[in-house]
């Protein structure tokens, strides 16, 4: 040999035991948050598969309880709830109804599983007839979403979730100033210690397609580009995160996940708040579809994708794979 090879990366990859003790990032059950879709229905047996999201369902309250019971037995630590109300209107009234479907679901889950962390998504889009995340003037089909009048309604929704027993609220609407409005309302209503996980950096993404089927929240006209971020922008992401920190956010979320690992990493480097990543519906659907075709190994890709979030700097991962991950671990 002409020259010695000093660095031999292969030395530490030689056996699986060595690889195990040297692994830098490991996904644990407590890292994962499972999203559930709960439907307001008179049919206690309602369990409707979501076409584009194999393994995911719209669930009645009873079916939600059953599904969660199974997952808790496997080690589920936390959930985030999305609601599908029986009636929608222009002002998203069901979002802040104390007996709305999300509020009922929170009460049910906290009663049956006191240790489970129950997080609620705070937004209007599942509850408005126009499908936008904020208020629109009656008759306006140009899709102009009014920012400031929306804030009071989001705050009401957050307080109603808190009163129902939620452990944390997660505003996903992307109105400006909503974290401050929600923080103030929670404090004024006796919940100064209820954390806010802000969807701080949420992009106007095409990866949300399957979710909108699941949550029945597709905008009836226009799009979300005036409130959700342009996927091209990374510096603006820092500005959004900074605003939410100043307004009182406790956890910063980035959404979607895999196409935005650079943003997760940038937030991790710049700020000391816990960072969460949302591996969204479209990401889940792509992996499931490729796996169903036999094109990839579904479980292996799931684990690799979840590990990538940890490596990028996320502490929490909101993912529809949570139950799959727990099942795999319990095998
Ligand atoms: C509500 C909301 C959305 C998602 C989470 N909260 C949809 C949207 O903004 O259109 C998407 C989640 C997913 O795709 O898995 N605003």
Please provide a written account of the structure:
The protein is α/β, with parallel strands linked by helices. The chain has one domain (26-329): Alpha-Beta Barrel (TIM Barrel), CATH 3.20.20. It is 38% helix and 17% strand. It has 11 helices and 12 strands. The chain has helices at residues 16-22, 61-74, 101-112, 147-164, 178-188, 209-215, 235-247, 261-270, 281-292, 298-312, 322-329; strands spanning 32-39, 47-49, 57-59, 78-84, 117-122, 135-136, 145-146, 168-171, 197-202, 251-255, 275-279, 316-319. The strands form 2 sheets. Strands 1, 2, 3, 4, 5, 8, 9, 10, 11 and 12 form a 10-stranded mixed beta sheet that branches. It has a two-stranded antiparallel ribbon with strand order 6-7. Strand 6 and strand 7 form a beta hairpin. It is globular, with a radius of gyration of 21 Å. It binds ligand PBG. Ligand PBG is lined by residues 121, 123, 125, 133, 172-173, 208, 211-212, 224, 280-281.
Q: Topology as H/E string?
A: HEEEHEHEEEHEHEHHEHEHHEH
What are the low-pLDDT stretches, counting only 5+ consecutive residues below 50? Answer: none
- Total strand count, please? 12
> Beta-strand percentage?
15-25%
Ligand catalogue: ligand PBG
Which structural category fits the helices and strands? alpha/beta
């Amino acid at each position: 040999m002409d020259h010695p090879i000093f660095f031999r990366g292969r030395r530490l990859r030689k056996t699986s035991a060595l690889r195990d003790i040297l692994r830098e990032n490991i996904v644990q059950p407590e890292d994962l948050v499972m999203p559930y879709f709960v439907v307001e229905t008179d049919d206690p047996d309602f369990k409707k598969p979501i076409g584009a999201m194999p393994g995911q369902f719209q669930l009645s309250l009873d079916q939600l309880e059953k599904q969660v019971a199974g997952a808790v037995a496997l080690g589920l630590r936390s959930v985030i709830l999305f609601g599908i109300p029986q009636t929608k209107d222009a002002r998203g009234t069901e979002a802040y109804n104390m007996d709305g479907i999300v509020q009922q679901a929170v009460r049910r889950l906290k009663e049956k599983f006191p240790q489970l962390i129950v997080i609620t998504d705070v937004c209007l889009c599942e509850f408005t007839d126009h499908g936008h995340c904020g208020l629109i003037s009656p008759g306006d089909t140009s899709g102009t979403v009014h920012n400031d009048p929306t804030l009071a309604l989001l705050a009401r929704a957050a307080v109603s979730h808190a009163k129902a027993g939620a452990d944390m609220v997660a505003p996903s609407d992307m109105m400006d100033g909503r974290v401050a409005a929600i923080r103030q309302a929670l404090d004024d209503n006796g919940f100064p210690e209820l954390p806010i996980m802000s969807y701080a950096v949420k992009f106007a993404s095409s990866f949300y397609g399957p979710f909108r089927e699941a949550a029945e929240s597709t905008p009836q006209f226009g799009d979300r580009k005036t409130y959700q971020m342009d996927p091209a922008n990374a510096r603006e992401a820092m500005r959004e995160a900074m605003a939410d920190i100043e307004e009182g956010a406790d956890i910063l979320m980035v959404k979607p996940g895999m196409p935005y690992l650079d943003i997760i990493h940038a937030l991790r480097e710049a700020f000391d708040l816990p960072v969460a990543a949302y591996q969204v519906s479209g990401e889940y659907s792509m992996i499931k579809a490729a796996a169903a075709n036999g094109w990839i190994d579904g479980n292996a890709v799931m684990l690799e994708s979840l590990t990538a979030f940890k490596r990028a700097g996320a502490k929490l991962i909101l993912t529809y794979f949570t139950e799959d991950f727990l099942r795999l671990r319990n095998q």
